[in-house]
């Protein structure tokens, strides 16, 4: 029933952002996912983050693969560019689009099946190349769309709805992203909007490969007592290392943190990430420490969340390749043709 359209009427009391848009202007079609699916909460957090950051919807390109998670770009940012790729192929299409037009903000949305199984090679290379993007995996530990088979992120010893045990070793996409050189790495939980919205805002303000793994329970197939991706399990085992707020260069934001030790990280665009430490010893600028902590806590069955790593000075694929600033479709013959004299020099150099 994806033909369902939301009423365009805006209540006059709805607040506007600096562009004059209400939150409704960032919504998409009515979701057709199961009621209570974590993925819908992530869509709501993306809407909130883009609205709060005053991002014009037409400046966003949202790309996805196949799965319930990959359907979600239809349910947010209805005025943005969108491309739904073949299963697991979102990262390469996003890479190509980003190279062709660096003016847009690239938001890749994927699932644990889409990224950790069929698309694992694509995930690895997009991260390793430092594509300037926000890459969100909506991680429920199962292939929701095809009725709940274990995915590669399902924990060893966790059980399916019918009681079958998963004996395979899980892939941890956060640890992989850290090892592959992602410059902004976070883990969130769809049931914690207060934590998730700032994590997405920080990622949208970041230049380089930003990766977010969001635990997102599948209420139809993976929300039972033997699951480690259920609402109950994640609430009980969630170990948040910090609380983030994003301060834009133009506006002071009131932060409702309790007093405590804080770290401030300034990003390329002048925005400041303010992190209040919940784990006093944790420094999100130390990649190795992040990998160690995740492994230690994982061995204890805990789910570490928060902004796990950030390198605000990291480069991106455009910097590595020295690409032009202008979108390729705006270049004319004068920029594209080197001219007879230059061609002559190149040819002479090869003789
Ligand atoms: C090439 C190909 N192989 C297999 C499928 C079947 N298929 C559709 S979605 C999916 C997995 C989706 O799992 P995930 O990415 O975790 O998304 P979720 O539905 O859990 O959000 C599979 C295997 C397909 N559509 N295309
Ligand atoms: S099957 Fe699972 S992942 Fe898919 S919409 Fe339903 S609850 Fe969400
Ligand atoms: Mg899944």
3D structure, described in words:
The chain has one domain (23-330): 3-Layer(aba) Sandwich (Rossmann fold). It is α/β, with parallel strands linked by helices and 351 residues long. The strands form 3 sheets. Strands 2-1-3-4-8-7-13-9 form an 8-stranded mixed sheet, sandwiched between helices. The model has no long low-confidence stretch (mean pLDDT 94). It has helices at 38-52, 68-71, 90-100, 112-118, 120-129, 173-180, 193-204, 231-237, 287-299, 317-321, 333-336, 340-349, and strands at residues 60-64, 81-84, 105-111, 133-139, 142-143, 149-150, 184-189, 209-215, 238-240, 242-247, 262-266, 272-277, 303-310. Helix 2 (68-71) links the parallel strand 1 (60-64) and strand 2. It contains 12 helices and 13 strands. The protein starts with 37 loop residues before the first helix and ends with a helix. The chain is globular. The structure holds thiamine diphosphate (TPP), iron/sulfur cluster and magnesium ion. Residues 33-34, 37, 39, 68, 140, 144-145, 218-221 line the site of iron/sulfur cluster.
Précis, in short:
The chain has 351 residues and is α/β, with parallel strands linked by helices. The protein has helices spanning 38-52, 68-71, 90-100, 112-118, 120-129, 173-180, 193-204, 231-237, 287-299, 317-321, 333-336, 340-349, and strands at 60-64, 81-84, 105-111, 133-139, 142-143, 149-150, 184-189, 209-215, 238-240, 242-247, 262-266, 272-277, 303-310. The strands form three sheets. Strands 2-1-3-4-8-7-13-9 form an eight-stranded mixed beta sheet, sandwiched between helices. Strands 10-12-11 form a three-stranded antiparallel beta sheet. A two-stranded antiparallel sheet has the order 5-6.
């Amino acid at each position: 029933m994806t033909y369902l359209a939301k009423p365009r009427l805006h209540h006059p009391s709805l607040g506007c952002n600096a562009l004059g848009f209400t939150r409704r202007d960032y919504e998409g079609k009515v979701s057709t996912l199961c009621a209570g699916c974590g993925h819908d909460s992530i869509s709501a957090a993306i809407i909130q983050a883009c609205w709060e950051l005053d991002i014009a919807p037409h400046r966003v390109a949202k790309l996805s693969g196949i799965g319930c998670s990959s359907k979600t770009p239809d349910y947010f940012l209805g005025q943005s560019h969108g491309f739904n790729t073949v299963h697991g192929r979102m990262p390469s299409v996003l890479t190509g689009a980003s190279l062709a037009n660096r003016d847009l903000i690239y938001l890749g949305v994927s699932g644990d099946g889409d990224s950790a199984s069929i698309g694992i090679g694509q995930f690895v290379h997009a991260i390793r190349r430092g594509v300037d993007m926000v890459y969100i995996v909506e991680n429920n530990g199962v292939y929701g769309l095809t009725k709940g088979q274990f995915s590669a992120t399902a924990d060893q010893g966790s059980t399916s709805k019918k009681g079958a045990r998963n004996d395979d070793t899980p892939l941890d996409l956060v640890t992989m992203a850290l090892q592959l050189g992602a410059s902004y790495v976070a883990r969130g939980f769809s049931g914690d909007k207060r934590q998730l919205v700032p994590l997405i805002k920080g990622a949208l303000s970041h230049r380089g490969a930003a990766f977010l793994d969001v635990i997102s329970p599948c209420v139809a197939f993976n929300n039972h007592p033997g699951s480690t991706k259920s609402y109950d399990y994640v609430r009980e085992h969630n170990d948040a290392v910090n609380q983030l707020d994003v301060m834009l260069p133009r506006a002071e934001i009131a932060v409702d943190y309790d007093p405590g030790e804080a770290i401030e990280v300034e990003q390329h665009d002048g925005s400041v990430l303010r992190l209040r430490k919940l784990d006093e010893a944790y420094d999100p600028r130390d990649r190795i420490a992040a990998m160690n902590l995740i492994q230690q806590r994982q061995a204890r069955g805990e789910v570490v969340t928060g902004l796990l790593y950030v390198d605000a000075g990291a480069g991106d694929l455009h910097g590595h390749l020295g690409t032009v600033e202008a979108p390729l479709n705006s270049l004319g013959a004068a920029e594209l043709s080197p001219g007879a004299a230059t061609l002559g020099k190149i040819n002479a150099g090869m003789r």
